[in-house]
Amino acid sequence: MQATSTSSVSGLHGSSVRGRGLVSGRAGPVRVQCTLQEARPSVNGVPVSVPKGAVPNRPILEVPDWENQYRRLTARTTQPTPASLSRLRLFSGTSNPTLASEVAHYLGMELGKIKCKRFADGEIYVQVQESIRGCDVFLIQPTCPPVNDHLMELLITIDACRRASARSITAVIPYYGYARADRKVQGRESIAAKLTANLITEAGADRVLAIDLHSGQCVGYFDIPVDHVYGETVILDYLASKRIATGDLVVVSPDVGGVARARAFAKKLNDAPLAIVDKRRSAHNVSEVMNLIGDVRGKVAVLVDDMIDTAGTITNAAKVLAKEGAREVYACATHAVFSPPAVERLSSGVFQEVIVTNTIPVAPENIFPQLTILSVANLLGETIWRVYNAASVQALRD
């Protein structure tokens, strides 16, 4: 049984209301065409579905197109959050603010506001001066000399960000201090590289981004993800601009431990030949060159290492190369630690050029004519952007 009826509804203040299940309005009488249907649980003995909320054998009021009208009335009126309001936040410690500023410039953003000061007794105070709740924070802080102060500052800053409810914290460590203490050479020694990794993890870091760790095993010391990028990309681009003939070039490892690094470097230089300097270390920061494996006579020798500390190893290797007939000697390293007497050794005339990066700030008194400093800001900035957007970091090296 079906019946069609017309109902009249007056305004909210009107007195005339006829019909059942009427729709009211403010603008005056509204006429609604309704259809009354009798809900039946079965037809000819075949069960049929009953609309949700309906009672069998009771008429149902159906307003045509009511679902679409309801959706239009309850449609979302707020606009989506602009892409510029990103959750990415970039902060810098006090060890290398110049590099951090260059990275921020590459990313097209400003460094976050942070307050760091030291009390009279040497204790460090850190306060993040903006809201980072729910943000992905990247802290740029190489643990360069003074290593202990900068490491402690990094730990305190990580803790401050964690307590400020950051969603994730990535410790960007261009230079990882204590990396050389990565194994036990003698009994009763500490593996400080592992201890440092534990401290960074326990402080609250969720990820570490480092450049040219002293050894690959340092990556395994962390119980959190580590993105290990290589500064050789920047140095290779610079060497390519010098247009040294492929046949005149030979890549040299200053010690046996750096053979894998030198081989990867030589492969990027059109698979240049490789030479190895065999050295024996009698004490810490003291080395003695024994012999040379490979031919360097009449060639341009490129010494490759991850860091230059006192420059004893690389200087002794350069002297042997010159003695064996190398035409020119270039020194390439990512980290310029430059502990005394590194500057005196490097500027003694054995090197045609010393090429380093700015993972560690070079003091003005350590600048000498043969020194060239390349920036890794673009490399770091691109890596940070890829980590933030969950893109491949390995593709930067491929």
TrEMBL record:
Record-annotated Ribose-phosphate pyrophosphokinase N-terminal domain positions: 89-204
Pfam families: Pribosyl_synth (PF14572), Pribosyltran_N (PF13793)
Principal EC category: transferase
Annotated spans, Disordered: 1-24
Entry-linked InterPro entries: Pribosyltran_N, PRTase-like, PRTase_dom, Rib-P_diPkinase, Rib-P_diPkinase_bac
GO biological process terms held by the UniProt record: 5-phosphoribose 1-diphosphate biosynthetic process; purine nucleotide biosynthetic process
E.C. designation(s): 2.7.6.1
Reactions catalysed: D-ribose 5-phosphate + ATP = 5-phospho-alpha-D-ribose 1-diphosphate + AMP + H(+)
Keywords assigned: ATP-binding, Kinase, Magnesium, Metal-binding, Nucleotide biosynthesis, Nucleotide-binding, Transferase
Gene Ontology terms for molecular function: ATP binding; kinase activity; magnesium ion binding; ribose phosphate diphosphokinase activity
Gene Ontology CC: cytoplasm; ribose phosphate diphosphokinase complex
Similarity comment text for this entry: Belongs to the ribose-phosphate pyrophosphokinase family.
Record-given protein name: ribose-phosphate diphosphokinase
Organism of this sequence: Gonium pectorale (Green alga)
